């Protein structure tokens, strides 16, 4: 089964969120399951500089949307996965964030930049000149940046028709990001004007790349079973719930996984001490290290809660701002790593000023520090209003840092609440709350504090959490089964 995996980011070459982690870990797992997976990435400078043995393949591409000339290059990732890079300097040779300019706003030509990526992916269906030696059975696109792939195959038979037509899969990592552009871009991105309609690419007067993919793809997936159900409702569907409900027979929720070669406290090179479910002793050293790093009191008995997140309302971080004072009054501590809304950043900075011995805040992102936070904390907070899957709570489970989450999306699917039944049978791995209010978060924190004060029970939950398996082998087998159903 030959699969072209089309993504706009891949760790460690380029990362803005969990998509990069998934794109780094899932293709090797699929290859291990028997697939022949190759990546297709935009030719950002970081990608071109990172791929090993990079060289040009196929003919010069001269008909891309927004670009007269481009090369398709091929190399290998650090994990040995073959990857194509679309080398189009006018579209991708830019510093910093792959989507945002220096002013913090979207690049004005993002429609062209990601239409070009989808155009090349679709081109593998009909043009041997892209790579004379390899053609995919499946085109698997991820998020809105790849949403036009199935649309091009359906709407542009003049360009992409041929004796071979691969199956198409679109994975929705977060339905809130849809790739919306003005209707005047239809011609520029190579879509026929007749497709600008409700049963096409039109979305409330704009073009939606994500809707295009949802409408035309052979199969749709998202990153947890609960989220697959949620996005068919008005609360979470962001206007696409009707379309997704009408296509529920081809929509599947497959949980993301964790790359345990990267996230494992027994081997993690970023930690001052390592530990395992059989020997938790190193976690105490990690906690002391984290308290020092954030300038907190070195109190081994203080329950230390953590946040590693975008600091936004959507992520429920306003609830943490509301509950933090109560947590500190009980003797708890809090560390925060992230960036986001100016008001949220200011709120956390203010909390740290008010409680310098108990609350530490770092604005920005630091990958090694995120590992130290996972290892050194006791409790990991993910109070999101919606969360397609979430990865940080999966990392926390592996590190014996009990997640406290809102019951939504993948958070509901991966954390077993310490209710009386789960506590009695030893299956509990964390804490859940239902309604997105500060008071409910406070109640959940109180429950966690109560269990923390019972070390035997807390360690039982830690060991149970650390032995849960969210590796990629299971999701990879689910994707393989899906591919077999859509392959042509």
TrEMBL record:
Catalytic activity, EC: 2.4.1.21
InterPro entries hit by this protein:
Glyco_trans_1 (IPR001296), GS/SS (IPR011835), Starch_synth_cat_dom (IPR013534)
Statement: the UniProt record of this protein carries the keyword Transferase: yes
Q: Which GO terms describe its molecular function?
A: alpha-1,4-glucan glucosyltransferase (ADP-glucose donor) activity; alpha-1,4-glucan glucosyltransferase (UDP-glucose donor) activity
- Set out the biological process GO terms recorded for this chain's protein: glycogen biosynthetic process
CDD domains assigned to the protein according to its UniProt record, in alphabetical order: GT5_Glycogen_synthase_DULL1-like (cd03791)
* Keywords of the record: Glycogen biosynthesis, Glycosyltransferase, Transferase
Q: Where would I find the Starch synthase catalytic domain in this sequence?
A: 2-245
> Which reactions are catalysed by this chain?
[(1->4)-alpha-D-glucosyl](n) + ADP-alpha-D-glucose = [(1->4)-alpha-D-glucosyl](n+1) + ADP + H(+)
Q: Where does ADP-alpha-D-glucose bind?
A: 15
Q: In which pathway does it act?
A: Glycan biosynthesis; glycogen biosynthesis
Q: Name one Pfam family in it.
A: Glyco_transf_5
Family according to the record: Belongs to the glycosyltransferase 1 family. Bacterial/plant glycogen synthase subfamily.
Protein function:
Synthesizes alpha-1,4-glucan chains using ADP-glucose.
Question: Would you tell me the protein name for this molecule?
Answer: Glycogen synthase
What is the scientific name of the source organism?
Answer: Azospirillum lipoferum (strain 4B)
């Amino acid at each position: 089964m030959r699969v072209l995996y089309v993504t706009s980011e891949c760790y460690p070459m380029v990362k803005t969120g969990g998509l990069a982690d998934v794109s780094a870990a899932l293709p090797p797992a699929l290859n291990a399951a028997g697939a022949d997976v190759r990546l297709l990435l935009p030719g950002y400078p970081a990608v071109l500089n990172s791929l090993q043995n990079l060289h040009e393949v196929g003919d010069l591409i001269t008909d891309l949307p927004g670009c007269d000339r481009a090369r398709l290059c091929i190399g290998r990732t650090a994990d040995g996965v073959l990857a194509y890079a679309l080398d189009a300097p006018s579209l991708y040779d830019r510093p910093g964030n792959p989507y945002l300019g220096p002013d913090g706003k979207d690049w004005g030509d993002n429609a062209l930049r990601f239409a070009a990526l989808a155009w090349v992916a679709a081109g593998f269906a009909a043009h041997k000149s892209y790579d004379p030696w390899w053609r995919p059975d499946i085109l698997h696109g991820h998020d809105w940046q790849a949403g036009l792939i199935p649309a091009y195959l359906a709407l542009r038979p003049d360009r992409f028709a041929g004796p071979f037509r691969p199956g198409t899969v679109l994975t929705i990592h977060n339905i809130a990001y849809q790739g919306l552009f003005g209707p005047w871009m239809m011609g520029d991105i190579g879509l026929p004007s007749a497709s600008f309609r409700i049963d096409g690419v039109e979305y409330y007067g704009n073009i939606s790349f994500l809707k295009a993919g949802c409408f035309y793809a052979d199969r749709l997936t998202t990153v947890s079973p609960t989220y697959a159900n949620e996005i068919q409702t008005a609360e979470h569907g962001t206007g696409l719930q009707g379309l997704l409900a009408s296509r529920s027979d081809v929509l599947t929720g497959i949980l993301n996984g964790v790359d345990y070669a990267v996230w494992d406290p027994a081997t993690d090179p970023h930690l001052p001490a390592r530990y395992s479910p059989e020997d938790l002793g190193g976690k105490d050293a990690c906690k002391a290290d984290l308290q020092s790093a954030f300038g907190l009191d070195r109190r081994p008995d203080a329950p230390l809660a953590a946040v590693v997140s975008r600091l936004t309302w959507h992520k429920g971080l306003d609830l943490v701002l509301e509950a933090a004072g109560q947590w500190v009054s009980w003797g708890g501590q809090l560390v925060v790593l992230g960036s986001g809304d100016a008001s949220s950043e200011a709120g956390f900075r203010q909390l740290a000023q008010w409680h310098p011995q108990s609350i530490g805040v770092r604005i920005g992102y630091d990958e090694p520090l995120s590992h130290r936070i996972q290892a050194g904390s006791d409790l990991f907070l993910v109070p999101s209003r919606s969360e397609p899957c979430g990865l940080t709570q999966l990392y926390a489970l592996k590190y014996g840092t009990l997640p406290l989450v809102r019951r939504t999306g993948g958070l509901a699917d991966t954390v077993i609440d310490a209710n009386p039944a789960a506590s009695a049978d030893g299956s509990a791995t964390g804490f859940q709350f239902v309604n997105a209010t500060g008071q409910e978060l406070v109640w959940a924190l109180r429950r966690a504090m109560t269990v923390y004060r019972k070390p035997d029970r807390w360690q039982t939950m830690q060991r149970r959490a650390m032995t849960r398996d969210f590796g990629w082998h299971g999701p990879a087998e689910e994707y393989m089964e899906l591919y077999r159903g859509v392959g042509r």
